[in-house]
């Protein structure tokens, strides 16, 4: 197992911190009326994306670590939204927005990799990410990508971004399933969810990290 890393050595944390500084510089050019509106929201969410990782980095419970990754990913998505609104209002060009969006999407993919690695320490029924194994590897249990850490080993790059695919799949399923009862807002013909939601028992979080 690789050596424990300081938070400052975590690649995705450094990228999110750099993005916050760049967003802060960007918002200084926006109209004064946005100083405490859109500008403040963009600065807050961009800083929180990195801060959520910092808050949970030394937490001893794996579920809390995963919660920190999820919150960081949500703050990154919120920042993308604020930058998109800035583009729509004419504060930023489409080129600038797309450049920031791609940088944040890269961080989101890296967060996905960290979450997937952390989930290996959870019971299988509680995992949301499928196992990805290296094809042709002599070790059938070897997984792709190692070693960037969130208190443990992690794969930050090279992973497929499954979130967009899952959302598109759910949308396609909803459109492909007609509603036999127009008065019923919930279509009764939808197939059952393949994975039943599992209750979260906070008192079972006993694995130290």
CATH architectural grouping of the domain at 7-123: Up-down Bundle
Percentage of residues in helical conformation:
40-55%
SS-based class:
mainly alpha
- Ranges where pLDDT stays below 50 over 5 or more residues in a row are 136-148, 152-209
The CATH topology of the domain at 7-123 is what? de novo design (two linked rop proteins)
Number of helices: 5
Query: Per the principal axes of the C-alpha atoms, what is the gross shape?
Result: elongated
What is the H level of CATH, i.e. the homologous superfamily of the domain at 7-123? Answer: 23S rRNA-intervening sequence
> What is the CA-atom radius of gyration, in angstroms?
20 Å
Query: What is the H-and-E element order?
Result: HHHHH
Structural features, described:
The chain has 209 residues and is mainly alpha-helical. The protein has a domain at 7-123: de novo design (two linked rop proteins), CATH 1.20.1440.60. It is 50% helix and 0% strand. It is built from five helices and no strands. It has helices at residues 11-27, 38-57, 62-88, 94-118, 162-176. Helix 1 runs antiparallel to helix 2, helix 1 (11-27) runs antiparallel to helix 4 (94-118) and helix 3 (62-88) runs antiparallel to helix 4 (94-118).
